Structure formats: C-alpha cells, structure tokens
Amino acid sequence: MITALMPEDKNSHIIHTIKAYGKSLLGFIRRRVKSDADAEDILQDVWYQFSSVINTEPIEQTSAWLYRVARNKITDKHKKRTETLLDDMLAGEDDEDEATDFKALLFAETNTPETEYLRNLFWEQLFIALDELPVEQKDVFIWHELDDMSFQEIAELTDEKVQTLVSRKRYAVLHLRKRLQQLYKEITEY
To answer: Per-residue b/e over 145-156, b at no fewer than 16 CB within 10 Å?
Structure first.
C-alpha cells in the first residue's frame, strides 16, 4: 500500500533516492550517450521529472520508474539528433510539407510494422549511400552527425583544418540528398 508523504518526507525521499540510485543511473546513461555532459544533462532531467512527479503522485517501483524515464530521455536525445540530420539532408526540398510528412512517418510515436519498416529502410539506405562516399567525407559526416563530435574535435583528431572538414561534410550532405531523393519520393508518395 502506498501512503501519501508529507512535504518534508518527500524531500527526504528525493534525497534518499538520489543517493541510492544516482551513480548506477548515471552509469546506465553514460553507456548510451556520446559524452559525459550529455549523460549529466539527461540525469538532471530525470531528477527534475522525479521531483515533479513525487510531489503529485506516489511511485510504486522507484527503480523501474527512474530507468524507464532515463531510457525515454536518451531516446528523445537520439531522436532530436536524427531530426536535425533529416532537416540538414532535406534542406532545399521544393515542398516543405512533404519533408514534414517524411519526418512524421519516420518519427511516428506508434511503432507499427509499417513505421518500423520505413525507419529501417531509411537507415539502411543512408548507410549504403554513406559507403559510396570517399572515406574522408564519410568519416566527417558520421563523426559530426551521428557521433555528435564538433568540427574542432574532428580537426584535433585528424590534424585537418576545420574549414576542410566543413567542406567535406557539405559534399557528403549533397551526395546523400541526391542519393536518398528516390527513397524520399517513394515514402512521401506512399
């Protein structure tokens, strides 16, 4: 049976929960995101949501709730990165509404066999198109867009000028736009 907590008990419960789950939850998040800063931001969001919810309703299984919220926050972060990637690749399309429809299909909240198939098809075709690029362009695109590295970080890694890397990514994006145009048309006409 769950009992209502008094305000001072809620604060004590929040502090106890942070102490009990903080390290393991941060480790869980770190294994699933690119940087420690991202992991800490996501953890902060989890704690904020926890403190908001605990003040309005009791949570039966705190551990399960925390990890579920953390997974959702990680998914949201990856989803946001992918939406940005699509915005970049679809920039310049004639019909803005079609581009929105394309993203709506790929990011539908419901996981139907159809939406799952379209997502898998998109990623498969993206990686096939990436394999057609020169290695330098492919690497810069993957590091910047998928691994979330800054151009400065890539420059330090490769000993290349930032402007050279920006140019390589631009060529990669142009190739991907052209290469994925047919898939885009097929999906939006579907």
So the answer is: bbebbebeebbe
